[in-house]
């Protein structure tokens, strides 16, 4: 069953590295660590006048799932505020089986993680960091 | 002499199990080893023919339980070459270190110094930091060399007349490096410091001759040494145990209790408050007996041949880096490596899909990871029951991760 964890879509998301890096002049940034596995995510955001994300960048020192999640998140975060990001998080939680319902794109790619409880925090860590940056 | 791996494997029921359709290639012995029939049987015999509390009953089951518990202490003592009165059963290795940090630590004064190393497990760091917060002792740290050994060249500079205790991993749980005990003891003695070794990763590889080492305190965990969970061992020289106040208070550790004053039982009872983990202690006694009966020169040669096969195989895979001693001298069968571009957790997860169990991450040694700026390593830790098929399955899995995950 683990064979299927690293399905092509997850690997592709991680390799795409969408939004990887730093912003020159972030409005806010936040870092979140997972003390259990040592994964570490730093997220920079530049906000517009309405609290919406105008630009986002992330640095991930962590596993492929965490990288893929940060990359997926960055690909759809622009234009969203805190509530908009919460909606995306619900999608991710649906994908990994923590919430009922069908997950939207791009987070449906994370469906194989549903069977790997110990790795689910890896997917959620970028959301935690972004939430903190927006709060 | 060659080692009978097949015969050894047969004594460990889990090694022939098929789990989720996969064979068990268990290479995570540093986290917890598997347990042989001899241990399972000993625990079952206690639970089915002698289960009772110890020290507190006159009925025959209580007498049987007490006898088996004390017999286990003798087995552990003989495994370490010391008198049973110097063996304290604890809840684990971490519990044993905390006991020393609390009880022996209470004899130290503000400004006294404890010397640790950069490669210690968190359980040999944090209890000392708690002591520092309570009593104002200072902590010094011996750095680690690039090949993952404690750098003893730094000892003269770090030992001071205020250094009271040097506490080091006997064998590193990340790099497998064996510390040069003789050099540590000689240097520590020159300033009057005591020496404690954390034997968590050494005890699973055969009897330890503690008197020959000339140290003061030794600790290890039952579950890493083929015994049950929930049991660990503290050995300390009688003179230290005698001087140490209790860690926890309760039943069994007292001489006489009145509300005005309570006197302590002599060691080791003084440090075993409450009902101890009786079944686990009996299991650990059986594990020590099992280990003592193994031909360790052959077993060690076998383990190190596996290390060589593993290192040779990893070096053939592009962009793998070994972390730890390059040679097989003065090391035990723990091997850490990195596969560039693939996070250790992804390596371990991929290996799981091949039925191979390893540990990935910081291994409770974050200062060591920080020193080398590592996200973590993938750690392969072996026991005498591992064989070439385990190593080959692992190498196949690493090749697969290298091909698919980057
Ligand atoms: C070197 C070392 N010391 C201490 C420990 C702690 O052992 P336990 O968690 O069984 O108390 C471990 C195991 O994780 C270890 O490898």
Structure in words:
The complex is a heterodimer of chains A (135) and B (406). Chain A has 135 residues and is an alpha+beta fold. Chain A has a single domain (2-134), classed as Sufe protein. Chain: A. Chain A contains four helices and three strands. In chain A, strand 1 (28-33) and strand 2 (40-47) form a beta hairpin. Chain A starts with 7 loop residues before the first helix and ends with a helix. Chain B is an alpha/beta fold and 406 residues long. Chain B is 38% helix and 17% strand. Chain B has a seven-stranded mixed β-sheet, with helices on both faces. A four-stranded antiparallel β-sheet of chain B has the order 13-14-17-16, covered by helices on one side. Chain B has helices at residues 5-10, 37-49, 60-80, 93-104, 126-135, 155-158, 181-190, 210-213, 238-243, 278-292, 296-315, 344-352, 366-371, 388-404, and strands at residues 18-19, 22-23, 25-26, 87-90, 113-117, 138-142, 163-169, 194-198, 217-221, 232-236, 254-257, 262-264, 320-323, 334-339, 356-357, 359-361, 377-381. Chain B has two domains: 5-31 and 295-404, Aspartate Aminotransferase, domain 1, CATH 3.90.1150; 40-292, Aspartate Aminotransferase, domain 2 (3-Layer(aba) Sandwich), CATH 3.40.640. In chain B, strand 11 (254-257) and strand 12 (262-264) form a beta hairpin. The longest helix of chain B is centred in the N-terminal third of the chain and has 21 residues, at 60-80. Chain B has 14 helices and 17 strands. The A-B interface holds A 1-3, 5-6, 11, 37-39, 61-65, 116, 119, 122 and B 20, 342-346, 349-350, 352-353, 361-362, 366, 369, 375-376, 404-405. Bound molecules: pyridoxal-5'-phosphate. Pyridoxal-5'-phosphate is lined by residues 30, 92-94, 121, 123-124, 169, 173, 198, 200-201, 221, 364 of chain B.
């Amino acid at each position: 069953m683990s064979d299927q964890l690293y399905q092509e879509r997850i690997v592709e998301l991680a390799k795409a590295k969408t939004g990887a890096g730093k912003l020159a002049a972030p409005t806010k940034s936040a870092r979140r660590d997972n003390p259990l596995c040592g994964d570490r995510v730093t997220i920079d955001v530049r906000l517009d006048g309405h609290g919406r994300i105008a630009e986002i960048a992330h640095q991930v020192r962590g596993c492929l799932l965490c990288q893929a999640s940060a990359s997926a998140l960055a690909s759809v975060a622009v234009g969203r505020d805190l509530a908009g990001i919460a909606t995306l998080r619900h999608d991710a939680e649906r994908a990994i089986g923590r919430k009922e319902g069908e997950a939207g794109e791009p987070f449906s790619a994370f469906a194989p993680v549903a069977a790997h409880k110990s790795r689910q925090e890896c997917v959620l860590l970028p959301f935690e960091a972004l939430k903190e940056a927006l709060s | 002499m060659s080692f009978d791996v097949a015969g050894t494997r047969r004594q460990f029921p889990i090694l022939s199990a098929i789990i989720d359709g996969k064979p068990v290639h268990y290479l995570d012995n540093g986290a917890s080893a598997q347990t042989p029939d001899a241990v399972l049987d000993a625990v079952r015999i206690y639970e089915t023919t002698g289960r009772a509390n110890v020290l507190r009953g006159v009925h025959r089951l209580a007498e049987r339980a007490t006898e088996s518990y004390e017999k286990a202490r003798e087995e552990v003592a003989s495994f370490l070459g010391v008198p049973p009165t110097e063996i304290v059963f604890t809840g684990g290795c971490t519990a044993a270190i905390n006991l020393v940090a609390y009880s022996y630590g209470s004899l130290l004064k503000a400004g006294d110094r404890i010397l640790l190393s950069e490669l210690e497990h968190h359980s040999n760091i944090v209890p000392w930091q708690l002591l520092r917060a309570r009593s104002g002792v200072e902590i010094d740290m011996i750095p680690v060399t690039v090949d993952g050994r404690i750098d003893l060249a730094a000892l003269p500079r770090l030992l001071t007349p205020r250094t009271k205790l040097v506490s080091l991993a006997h064998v590193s749980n990340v790099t497998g490096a064996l510390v040069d005990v003789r050099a540590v003891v000689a240097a520590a003695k020159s300033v009057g410091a005591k020496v404690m070794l954390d034997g968590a990763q050494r005890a699973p590889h055969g009897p330890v001759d503690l008197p020959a080492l000339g140290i003061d305190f030794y600790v290890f965990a039952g579950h890493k040494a083929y015994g049950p969970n929930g049991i660990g061992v503290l050995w300390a020289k009688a003179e230290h145990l005698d001087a140490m106040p209790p860690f926890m208070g309760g039943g069994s550790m007292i001489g006489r209790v009145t509300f005005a004053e309570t006197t302590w039982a002599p060691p080791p009872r003084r440090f075993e408050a409450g009902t101890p983990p009786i079944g686990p202690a009996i299991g650990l006694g059986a594990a020590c007996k099992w280990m003592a009966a193994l031909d360790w020169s052959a077993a060690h040669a076998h383990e190190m041949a596996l290390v060589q096969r593993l290192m040779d195989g990893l070096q053939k895979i592009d962009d793998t880096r070994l972390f730890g001693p390059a040679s097989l001298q003065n090391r035990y069968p723990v091997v850490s490596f990195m596969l560039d571009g693939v996070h250790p957790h992804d390596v371990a997860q991929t290996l799981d899909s091949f039925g191979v169990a390893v540990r990935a991450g910081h291994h409770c040694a974050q200062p060591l990871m920080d020193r080398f700026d590592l996200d973590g390593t993938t750690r392969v830790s072996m026991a005498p029951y591992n064989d070439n098929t385990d190593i080959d399955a692992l190498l196949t899995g690493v090749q697969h991760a290298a091909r698919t995950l980057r």
